[in-house]
Write a sequence for this structure.
């Protein structure tokens, strides 16, 4: 099993490495969001505060609006991490569909390589990119804070080993969860148009019902309620709470992580049942 | 104990959606070390049969045994004994020739070092060593086919299933490919099960054939046995313009089955063409019809096909499949293999 997994994973990474344009495109989206959207949309609610507000009151307003973050950009950057962890996994399923169309999937299924190796190799390679991209976004946003003329992510709390580990685990869980989901859809769906339609049907509602990009203070109450169960929000909450040491969250990062584990267990469980059924030998 | 029959299909049936009987009670066997051709028009059940034999599809009923293993009971065991070369090009365009073979070796549980050794030997054997470090998408059609053959042979299988292996190749590529297959059979005793649209290939390369139509086997035998069943040769005699009709004269000769006349040309089906020619020429001359030309033709597989299926082996069916293969190839080239 390990040899088959190793060999098929090597194939995925070789193919990924030979497509620099795919890597460039994947980097471009978060880069544009960080450089353009984040910079341009960097609203400051203190500017609209009554003139009699003191500096401390204005800061409190900013914290209230952005759940403890010192600026919209600092609030938005962890949201982008969650956003990228989901959107960069989309192609994992599309690649399976193209491999099915070109007969490559059939050829691999014609060997005795176990289903777990076929699935696992794609999951490893397919989630490595969003995971790497998520950390790239986080690092770049922090770097921007140190470049004159740019706004960046300002970390206002000291992130210890536990906090760092919580951030890493939350990103891994989110990327793996969605990679599993999209990979399963790629295995079950036969044509690319249908796949992308299904992905958009799932992807957009998930992202738009999270608090990844909306300023918390401007969200309607019902959306705040919905967003607290969203897996993207759970990951983003872990990041924001850890990076800003905020007390404006009802639960600790560990609790949000538990929520993420629960989501991951349910989604991965369902996906594995469907995949096992779809990739049964002799079917 | 090894039996001489390496593939046995016993009353194989595949029903899709509860109504479409794609394969309808197919039984045949393939002997160890032979090249066995499986012929039939599109939709006849060829690919479904191959899929059931190669452990990719569960039969609705019936049994398939590959080298002593029942396919439905031990599909992985069967997959270790067979190599499958699919109709479409399945080489990974973004991997080099060597990497394609090494990845395939890993799929059979081989160590990386074993895979490397095996790929070296196969690249040499298939005469693509010089291109081994090039991406497969830069290979010509013939080279790709040889690479796919190398990939199919990586685990040293006893049986090779070739599904339309020379589709889309030029005559040189086809000859080259068959040269490798013949050598494999001769040197390594590999049994070859091949489906093809090219009846001339089936005629010259296959030891035995089965013809499938509407999901049923309609004939099996060696190419010459099948042709003999048609009752002999076809002699064509062209007489001088305006010569008297000699149809009755020809019909009265010994060994003649049928005579068809069109203008001044007679198409005679007879038991044995060559000794018949001087007798027929003499009879025509005596009847006052000067003979201008004679040809003797053994019946081709086209005629065998016509006889057993009631229709001609339409060329356009081959064209459809060729066009599809070419289209897939173009898309793969365009998108660099896939991504």
């Amino acid at each position: 099993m390990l040899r088959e997994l190793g060999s098929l994973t090597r194939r995925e990474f070789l193919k990924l490495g030979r497509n620099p344009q795919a890597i460039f495109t994947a980097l471009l989206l978060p880069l544009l969001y960080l450089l353009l959207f984040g910079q341009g949309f960097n609203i400051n609610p203190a500017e609209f505060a009554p003139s009699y507000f003191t500096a401390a009151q204005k800061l409190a307003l900013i914290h209230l609006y952005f759940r403890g973050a010192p600026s919209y950009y600092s609030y938005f950057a962890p949201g982008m991490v969650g956003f990228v962890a989901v959107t960069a996994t989309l192609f994992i399923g599309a690649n399976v569909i193209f491999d099915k169309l070109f007969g490559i999937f059939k050829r691999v299924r014609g060997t005795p390589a176990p289903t777990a190796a076929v699935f696992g190799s794609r999951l490893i390679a397919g989630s490595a990119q969003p995971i790497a991209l998520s950390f790239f976004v986080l690092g770049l946003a922090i770097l921007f804070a140190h470049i004159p003329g740019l706004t960046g992510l300002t970390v206002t709390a000291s992130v210890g080993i536990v906090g760092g580990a919580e951030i890493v685990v939350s990103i891994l869980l989110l990327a793996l969860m969605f990679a599993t989901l999209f990979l399963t859809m790629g295995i079950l769906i036969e044509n690319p148009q249908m796949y992308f339609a299904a992905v958009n049907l799932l992807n957009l509602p998930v992202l738009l019902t999270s608090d990844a990009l909306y300023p918390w203070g401007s969200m309607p109450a019902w959306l705040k309620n919905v967003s607290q169960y969203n897996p993207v929000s759970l990951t983003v909450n872990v990041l924001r709470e850890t990076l800003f040491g905020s007390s404006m969250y009802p639960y600790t990062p560990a609790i949000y992580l538990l929520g993420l584990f629960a989501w991951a267990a349910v989604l991965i469980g369902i996906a594995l049942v469907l995949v096992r059924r779809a990739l049964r030998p002799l079917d | 104990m090894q039996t001489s029959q390496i593939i046995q299909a016993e009353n194989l049936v595949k029903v899709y959606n509860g109504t479409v009987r794609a394969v309808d009670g197919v039984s045949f066997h393939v002997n160890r070390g032979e090249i066995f051709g499986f012929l039939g028009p599109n939709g006849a059940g060829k690919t479904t049969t191959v899929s059931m034999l190669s452990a990719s599809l569960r039969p609705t009923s019936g049994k398939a045994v590959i080298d002593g293993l029942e396919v439905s009971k031990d599909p992985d065991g069967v997959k270790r004994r067979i190599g499958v070369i699919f109709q479409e090009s399945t080489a990974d365009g973004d991997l080099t020739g060597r990497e394609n073979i090494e990845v395939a070796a890993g799929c059979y549980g081989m160590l990386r070092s074993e895979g490397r050794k095996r790929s070296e030997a196969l690249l040499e054997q298939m005469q693509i060593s010089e291109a081994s470090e090039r991406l497969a998408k830069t290979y010509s059609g013939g080279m790709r086919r040889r690479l796919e053959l190398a990939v199919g042979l990586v685990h040293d299988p006893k049986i090779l299933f070739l599904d339309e292996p020379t589709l889309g190749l030029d005559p040189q590529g086809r000859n080259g490919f068959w040269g490798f297959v013949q050598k494999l059979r001769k040197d390594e005793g590999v049994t070859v099960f091949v489906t093809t649209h090219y009846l001339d290939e089936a005629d010259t390369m296959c030891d035995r054939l089965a013809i499938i139509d509407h999901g049923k086997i309609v004939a099996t035998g060696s190419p010459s046995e099948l042709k003999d069943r048609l009752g002999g040769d076809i002699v064509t005699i062209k007489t001088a313009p305006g010569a008297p009709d000699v149809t009755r004269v020809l019909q009265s000769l010994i060994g003649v089955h049928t005579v068809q006349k069109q203008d001044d040309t007679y198409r005679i089906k007879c038991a044995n063409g060559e000794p018949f020619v001087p007798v027929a020429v003499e009879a025509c001359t005596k009847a006052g019809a000067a003979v201008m030309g004679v040809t003797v033709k053994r019946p081709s597989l086209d005629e065998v096909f016509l006889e057993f299926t009631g229709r001609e082996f339409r060329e356009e069916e081959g064209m459809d499949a060729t066009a599809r293969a070419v289209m897939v190839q173009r898309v793969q080239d365009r998108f660099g293999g896939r991504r």
Summary: Residues 315-326, 335-339 of chain B have pLDDT under 50 and may be disordered. Chain B has two domains: 5-227, 231-298. Chain B touches chain A at residues 54-58, 71-72, 75-76, 79-80, 84, 86, 88-90, 92, 94-95, 99, 102-112, 115, 135, 151, 328, 331-332, 335-339 (CB under 8 Å).
